[in-house]
């Protein structure tokens, strides 16, 4: 793999042990995946942030590192809201360990935005090379923005943040971004919302695996694209998808789709995912809510009081810019938490059955929270939380 003189200096240990180890990790990754060079990145997004997922071993490793990120680098959601963890009912022992994880990342120069939607906070452009690790953020960056990132593991993204480069292979290359199968959606999608598109992603992710699908027959907006991608990354391993006439690379390129496997999806396959099982709590904001999604929740909660716990998750940056809307949501008794989510926080484990409007959360809640999951439209979620 080609390395420049500065890289050689780092590899020789002249920039400190941590930078040396981080570059060794990137070079090893590059060799495994056949990268010919490293590519400079605009930003990193680092997973492995919740103590619930990394545990003591991960914390000890982070605490042993000593270097600073050289590009903007954002942390993935952690296991609790940093300032409101007591209100969430988080165990003080867990909070102490989580705070230690956060402090370790802060020492490494990672910004404590703790979000899977960094694209709402920091400008990310078409063609930018990135090293992001949370699967829905990766999907959004590649598919909706047209930026370029592989789905990095936590250590790989951290190493890229500290070195400012990532191995140039996979989705960093034009030739690896072309459609590999076609999904024809046969449904009247004119009234579909985020949950319907999330359910579509949930269904299609299981069929596609890690291939790059090219959708026909849908016209999702940005939040709906976010929902499809998050769900496909959860039930499959989709890091890039295209939507005819919608996503930037599908608009820019003329792909040769002849000979590709084509799968049809019918409305009935999506509708059957929407069950009516009883629920104990409702959780919204997977991925973290956009300003428009917060506004929609506030509108639907106007004049209502929740009768079941209703959790809403968004980044601190989005919450801070929408305080009036957030106040209106919380007037109902719902709670809007930053930094965390229904999957990475231990808070949802107490509920045997959780309703969500997200295909990704629908996929993850049973394993990560131990309860049953129900998917519903945002209107149905608010109805169930307030009936
Ligand atoms: Fe984000 Fe948590 Fe969902 S990290 S994508 S809100 S599982």
Descriptive key words:
single chain, 387 residues, alpha/beta, four-stranded parallel sheet, 15 helices, 14 strands, 14% strand, binds FE3-S4 cluster
Task: Give a verbal description of the structure.
By secondary structure, the chain is α/β, with parallel strands linked by helices. 52% of the residues are buried. Helices cover 40% and strands 14% of the residues. It has 15 helices and 14 strands. It has helices at 5-11, 17-32, 51-63, 92-107, 135-145, 154-163, 194-208, 222-235, 248-252, 267-271, 291-301, 316-320, 323-331, 359-368, 378-386; strands at 38-40, 43-46, 73-75, 130-132, 165-167, 181-186, 213-216, 242-243, 261-266, 281-284, 310-313, 335-337, 353-356, 372-375. The strands form four sheets. Strands 12-11-10-13-14 form a five-stranded parallel beta sheet, sandwiched between helices. Helix 5 crosses helix 8. The chain is globular, with a radius of gyration of 21 Å. Residues 77, 116, 134, 136, 230, 286-288, 313, 341, 343-344, 360-361, 364 line the site of FE3-S4 cluster.
Number of strands: 14
**SSE class:** alpha/beta
Low-confidence stretches: none
Largest sheet: 5 strands, parallel
Output mean pLDDT.
Answer: 97
Write down the secondary-structure element order.
Answer: HHEEHEHEHHEEHEHEHEHEHEHHEEHEH
Radius of gyration: 21 Å
Measured between the Cα atoms of the first and last residue, the distance is 61 Å
> Oligomeric state of the chains?
single chain
Estimate the global geometry from the Cα principal axes. Answer: globular
Q: How are the strands of the biggest sheet laid out side by side?
A: 12-11-10-13-14
């Amino acid at each position: 793999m080609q390395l420049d003189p500065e890289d050689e200096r780092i590899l020789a240990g002249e920039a400190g042990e941590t930078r040396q180890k981080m570059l060794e990790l990137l070079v090893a990754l590059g060799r495994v995946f056949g990268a010919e060079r490293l590519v400079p990145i605009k930003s990193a997004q680092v997973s492995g942030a919740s103590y619930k997922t990394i545990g003591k071993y991960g914390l000890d490793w982070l605490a042993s590192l000593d270097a600073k990120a050289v590009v903007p680098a954002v942390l993935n959601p952690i296991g609790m809201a940093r300032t409101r963890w007591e209100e969430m009912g988080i165990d003080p022992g867990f909070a102490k360990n989580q705070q230690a994880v956060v402090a370790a990342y802060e020492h490494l120069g990672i910004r404590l935005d703790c979000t899977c939607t960094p694209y709402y906070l920091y400008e990310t452009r078409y063609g930018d090379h990135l090293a992001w690790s949370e699967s829905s953020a990766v999907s959004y960056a590649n598919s909706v923005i047209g930026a370029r990132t592989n789905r990095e593991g936590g250590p790989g993204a951290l190493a890229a943040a500290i070195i400012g480069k990532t191995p140039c292979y996979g989705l960093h290359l034009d030739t690896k971004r072309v459609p590999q199968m076609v999904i024809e959606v046969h449904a009247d999608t004119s009234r579909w919302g985020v949950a319907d598109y999330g359910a579509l992603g949930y269904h299609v992710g299981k069929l596609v695996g890690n291939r790059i699908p090219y959708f026909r027959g849908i016209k999702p907006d940005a939040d709906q694209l976010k929902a499809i991608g998050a769900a496909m990354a959860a039930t499959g391993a989709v890091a890039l998808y295209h939507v005819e006439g919608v996503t930037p690379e599908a608009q820019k390129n003329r792909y040769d789709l002849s000979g590709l496997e084509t799968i049809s999806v019918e409305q009935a396959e999506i509708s059957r995912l929407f069950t009516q099982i009883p629920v104990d709590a409702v959780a919204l904001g997977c991925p973290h809510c956009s300003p428009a999604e917060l506004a929609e929740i506030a509108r639907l909660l106007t004049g209502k009081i929740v009768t079941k716990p209703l959790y809403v998750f968004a980044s601190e940056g989005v919450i801070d810019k929408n305080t009036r809307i957030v106040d209106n949501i919380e007037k109902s008794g719902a709670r809007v938490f930053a930094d965390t989510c229904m999957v990475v926080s231990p808070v949802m484990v107490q509920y045997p059955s959780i309703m969500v409007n997200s295909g990704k959360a629908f996929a993850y809640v049973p394993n990560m929270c131990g309860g049953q999951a129900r998917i519903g439209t945002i209107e149905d979620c608010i109805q169930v939380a307030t009936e």
